[in-house]
Design brief:
Elements lengths: L24 E5 L8 E4 L2 E3 L2 E3 L7 E3 L3 E3 L1 H6 L12 E3 L2 E3 L6 E3 L7 E3 L7 E10 L2 H4 L7 E8 L8 H8 L4 E2 L3 E4 L15 E2 L9 E6 L16 E2 L3 E5 L6 H11 L24 E3 L1 E6 L4 E5 L10 E9 L3 E6 L9 E4 L7 E10 L11 E3 L2 E4 L9 E7 L5 E6 L8 E10 L55 H26 L36 H4 L6 E7 L3 E4 L7 E10 L2 H4 L5 E6 L14 E6 L2 E5 L10 E10 L2 E8 H7 L1 E4 L5 E11 L2 E2 L6 E5 L6 H37 L32 E9 L4 E11 L2 E10 L6 H12 L12 E5 L6 E5 L6 H7 L15 H20 L12 E3 L5 E3 L14 E2 L5 E2 L6 H6 L4 H16 L11 H9 L15
Parallel strand pairs: 5-8, 11-12, 12-13, 12-14, 13-15, 14-16, 15-17, 16-18, 19-26
Antiparallel strand pairs: 1-2, 3-4, 5-6, 7-8, 9-10, 20-21, 21-24, 22-23, 22-25, 25-27, 28-29, 29-32, 30-31, 30-33, 33-34, 35-36, 36-39, 37-38, 37-40, 40-41, 40-42, 43-44, 44-45, 45-47, 46-47, 48-49, 50-51
Helix pairs in contact: 12-14
Length: about 1000
């Protein structure tokens, strides 16, 4: 590594001992401040010394050395140079003279300036072949080419400028020029300085200029500005379909070869047959424009023989397109075309070309072509504005910003901004925020758009510098309380989301999102600037009210400020794009955003004073008015009251306030009190009211004796009644024992008897046995064999349906048969795509059958294991991707959410109890019927029933409690099974170890290579 030199050296290098080198040294040196001890020189090196420039009588060489004239004359020339030695120019030894200079002679070492362009003779054998841009580089700078030039460039796009850069200086070719199979060439103008073709050598002994088979060649040179002389030989042109013969004849005249060529040398039958040469100019008769179509009509074209006219071709672009137009049946009608699929408000270049027969035997067919016309399509409704954002900068204003539409479809003129106050969510009123588990959900308005929050923490005073690093200050009680409240807010918010999703809410009136789309602006209230008029509505009606829309027009900018809004209120803001045709076409559909204004200071303060009234003993009624325009909803009130300076707190829910118009304080001791009230809204707390004083009257003197009497009399009465009942019971028992002797038999419940409530009663799910056909065995279920079969008429609009048929063993008792049917009956309540459907029951006759939806791919556990790469029964499928895993998990979660919404706890969710359909959809399987198939997954705890301990939550293992939460735990284990392709959870542990591990708080480890998203 390079050493870091001392700062005193500046930009100079240094020795290994950190001593500064000479300024002419580069990198390092072996001795300080010595220009002969440098490892490398900064400028030039000469005879062991580094120096800033070469000394007299020496010359710069290769940018770093100084050499003598004698040394320069002996340097061998480069392979590309036509001279044998280097030259000296501007005190530098170089291989060639620079541009604009030429050697004084072939053996000279000095250069002189050229008069005009410097001639450069290139001689590379007899024929120089140019078949690419790379080969053309060899002719860069050449003015005279000794020999022949053969151009054969078959491929390439936009290469004319490159060819001109390398061949544009050629003035003379001493031999012939041959251009063949050069399909990449459109013109020969890249040979812009070619003036003479001497023809010292000719193609086939006849031709000095030979052009053969160039499919795209359309022009030779611009003969108005280019002169070319062919001194010897003839020209030959053949198979150039886009080169007009008139262009060739013009070259004959300019080059001086007219009369040399025979008729076969320039054949009009195979030159220009695909070009529109000597065209008649077609004129457009009419055009009609729509937003995405153009209707064109042009004049009739009459060639000498109408049979020569085949059709017309219309070319049009943004990028050139082409469409063929057949001749009109009536020869008197003007031809036309309707161009469709165009973009609105886009200018198109269009021309029409007549397609004619290329050549008759005795004459060349003239074509017809129009001038290029430029037509713009009509305007259309613009697309919606993009990237609408909004934020609040005060309690009465919202700032709105957006970007222009991607497709204005016209000249964008203005925007329509519409806003509507959104009703408060009165669903929040249902909560009693005075209970311990309910805390008001604080909602905050967005900040302003143009400012960004500071991300760096603010340092306390005295931090850093000489005082050293600061420690974090201990949290105050207020900060701890704030953190506690924040945690409560999050819990309540999650509960609110859960309740909002799973509790049915009344349907709201649908609002028309695109009300303004394709409508005229004639009836709009463009001058509305505020929302000054509001309607007082009750809490129950709040979420049903439809507030009016207000709107304003915004010209020439993509932002606006909406004023005169309510504090801490949610607004919907719609933005519409309007172009110059808005009066006839209407504006775009809206892009909308929701934004909330900031809270207003003092809006939550209770107006006026608090009144009080004593209606009952030891009870005071406090009454006050609600804030007129609070920050959102008022959720609760808080009262502080007390006597002698000691205050108590009383929370008053919204519901209680609506009943009483205030609050009731009970169990007050006699004396003087003071009280004050504070309102709490969605935005926070208002200010406390001024204290109000009230007096509680003392109780009457004989009140205590009266109270004792009221309490004692009922107790004495109850004791007397109880004694009488005990005596009656003892008397009856003694009498019955005297009446019945020893050895009397008492009736007991028959263990083989089951009540009528347990008997299965056929219902609308009953299917006639003759409609069921069993086909093949699928496997053993918990009650008996499971078959695949055909059922007729069990699914609407399906004559026959493939189904799974579950049976009960022939040896099963009557109770087991009824349990089998009742267990299947649980599924009659379910109708969800991600829960296996019950299709019918056959309870009449034997055997008892349960008809289920057929899940052809079996249970999820077996399916996942079959996807393991090393398994023998792999169906040839790869392991599931992350997308497929998430889809499986989502389908299971959807089915479980449906069961939870129907108050059903599964209690045994696992991959073995999920089924896979033919289309790979995963569904929750039938309940309780698959337990015996994977009997090793269950464990008998303490002589009780079998339990799936590896899928059970801690509370289920401890207390036997099964809830939706325990199903969620099981769902997490199912996710683990999906990620591991159905490995056994808690591998290596016995069931007893799993039981203790989970009850002590143990968790499954994250599987290897498990995506974080899963």
């Amino acid at each position: 590594c390079l050493a870091v030199c001392p700062s005193s050296c500046g930009k100079r290098a240094c020795t290994d001992q950190n001593e500064c080198c000479h300024p002419e040294c580069l990198g390092s040196c072996t001795a300080p401040d010595n220009n002969t001890a440098c490892v490398a020189c900064r400028n030039y090196y000469y005879e062991g010394v580094c120096m800033p420039t070469c000394p007299p009588n020496t010359y710069k060489f290769e940018g770093w050395r100084c050499v003598t004239k004698e040394f320069c004359s002996k340097v061998p020339a480069t392979e590309t140079s036509e001279y044998e030695r280097f030259v000296i120019h501007n005190d530098e030894c170089m291989a060639e003279c620079p541009s604009g200079f030429i050697r004084n002679g072939s053996q000279s070492m000095f250069c002189s300036p050229c008069e005009g362009p410097c001639p450069k003779i290139c001689e590379d054998g007899k024929t120089k072949t140019i078949d690419s841009v790379t080969s053309a580089q060899m002719l860069q700078g050449c003015t005279i080419l000794k020999g022949n030039l053969l151009i054969n460039i078959r491929r390439g796009n936009n290469i004319a400028s490159e060819l001109e850069n390398f061949m544009g200086l050629i003035e003379t070719v001493t031999g012939y020029v041959k251009i063949r199979h050069s399909h990449a060439l459109v013109s020969l103008s890249f040979l812009k300085n070619l003036r003479y073709i001497l023809g010292e050598e000719q193609v086939d002994g006849n031709y000095s200029f030979y052009v053969l088979d160039n499919h795209n060649l359309q022009q030779l040179w611009d003969w108005n500005h280019h002169n070319l002389t062919i001194k010897e030989g003839k020209m030959y042109f053949a198979f150039n379909p886009k080169l007009c013969v008139s262009e060739i004849y013009r070259m004959e005249e300019v080059s001086g070869t007219k009369g040399r060529q025979s008729k076969g040398d320039i054949n009009p039958r195979n030159n220009g047959e695909r070009a529109s040469c000597e065209s008649h100019i077609l004129r457009f008769v009419s055009n009609t424009t729509l937003k995405n179509r153009i209707k064109l009509t042009w004049e009739r074209y009459r060639p000498p023989d109408y049979r020569d006219l085949i059709s017309f071709t219309v070319y049009y672009k943004e990028a050139w397109n082409m469409v063929d137009v057949d001749l009109p049946p009536n020869k008197e009608n003007n031809p036309g075309i309707l161009l469709q699929g165009l973009k609105p408000w886009t200018q198109y270049a269009i021309y029409v070309k007549a397609v004619t027969l290329t050549m008759m035997e005795n004459h060349h067919i003239h074509g017809a072509k129009s001038e290029i016309v430029y037509i713009r399509t009509n305007a259309a409704v613009p697309s919606i504005p993009l990237d609408v954002i909004s934020a609040s900068n005060s309690s009465s204003q919202l700032i709105v910003k957006w970007n222009p539409p991607s497709l204005p479809n016209g000249n964008l003129s203005y925007y329509i901004v519409r806003w509507q106050q959104q009703p408060q969510d009165s669903y929040l009123y249902r909560h009693n925020y005075c209970s311990k588990d309910k805390v008001p959900i604080r909602r905050y308005a967005d900040g302003t758009i143009d400012t960004e929050e500071a991300t760096e923490p603010t340092k306390p005073e005295g931090c850093g510098g000489e005082k050293g690093p600061c420690c974090a200050c201990p949290k105050t009680e207020a900060e701890k309380q704030a953190e506690k409240e924040e945690a409560e807010y999050r819990k309540v918010f999650e509960n609110f989301l859960h309740n909002s999703i799973f509790v049915p809410r009344p349907d709201r009136k649908r609002r028309d999102v695109f009300r303004i789309a394709n409508a005229t602006l004639a009836t709009r209230n463009r001058n509305a600037t505020g929302t000054d008029h509001f309607t007082n509505v009750s809490d129950a009606e709040e979420s049903e009210v439809e507030y009016p829309f207000f709107e304003t027009k915004v010209d020439g900018k993509e932002r606006t400020v909406i004023s005169h809004l309510q504090p801490f209120t949610l607004y919907r803001i719609d933005i519409h794009s309007c172009n110059h045709e808005a009066d006839t076409l209407g504006c775009s559909a809206s892009n909308f955003v929701f934004a909330r204004t900031m809270p207003s200071e003092g809006a939550d303060n209770i107006p006026g004073t608090v009144a009080w009234e004593a209606k009952e003993e030891n009870t005071i009624y406090l009454k006050w008015l609600e804030p007129a325009n609070p920050n959102g909803l008022i959720l609760m009130y808080e009262i502080k009251y007390g006597q002698h300076g000691e205050e108590k707190r009383e929370c008053v829910s919204r519901q209680e306030y609506k009943k009483l118009g205030g609050a009731k304080l009970t169990h007050l001791n006699p004396g003087n009190y003071s009280a004050r009230v504070q309102a709490t809204s969605l935005a926070g707390n208002g200010s406390w009211t001024e204290p109000v004083s009230f007096y509680v009257q003392p109780k009457p003197a004989n009140y205590g004796n009266f109270l004792h009497l009221i309490i004692v009399l009922p107790i004495a009465f109850l004791l007397i009644i109880g004694g009488l009942l005990i005596m009656l019971y003892v008397f009856n028992k003694k009498r019955n024992s005297d009446r019945l002797g020893n050895g009397v038999l008492y009736a007991s419940v028959n263990p083989e008897y089951f009540s009528a409530s347990d008997v299965y009663v056929p219902d609308e799910w009953e299917v006639p046995r003759e409609k069921i056909t069993m086909c093949r065995e699928l496997g053993q279920g918990s009650f008996g064999m499971v078959y695949e079969g055909i059922a007729k008429g069990v699914v609407k609009d399906e004559p026959e349906t493939r189904v799974a048929i579950k049976t009960v063993n022939e040896s099963a008792s009557m109770r087991e048969r009824i349990e089998f049917l009742n267990e299947a009956s649980v599924m009659k309540e379910f109708n969800c795509h991600h829960v296996v459907r019950l299709l019918g029951v056959v309870s009449q006759g034997q055997p008892t059958l349960v008809i289920m939806e057929l899940m052809t791919r079996g249970d999820l556990k077996s399916y996942l294991r079959s996807l393991r790469p090393d398994t023998e029964n792999n169906p040839g499928q790869a392991p599931p991707t992350l997308k497929k895993m998430i889809q499986m998990a989502g389908e299971i979660a959807d089915g479980m959410a449906y069961l939870n919404a129907n108050k059903f706890v599964h209690r045994d969710l696992a991959a073995r109890n999920c089924m896979v359909a033919e289309d790979f959809t995963v569904k929750i399987g039938d309940f309780g019927m698959t337990r015996d198939i994977y009997e090793t997954d269950y464990y008998r705890k303490g002589g009780k029933g079998l339990l799936p301990v590896r899928w059970m939550s801690p509370e289920s293992l401890k207390d036997g409690v099964f809830t939706t939460h325990s199903d969620v735990w099981s769902f997490g284990v199912v996710l683990w099974e999906i990620a591991t392709l159905a490995e056994q959870p808690y591998q290596g542990m016995t069931n007893e170890q799993v039981l203790r591990f989970v009850m002590e708080g143990g968790l499954l480890e994250k599987p290897d290579n498990c995506p974080d998203m899963l």
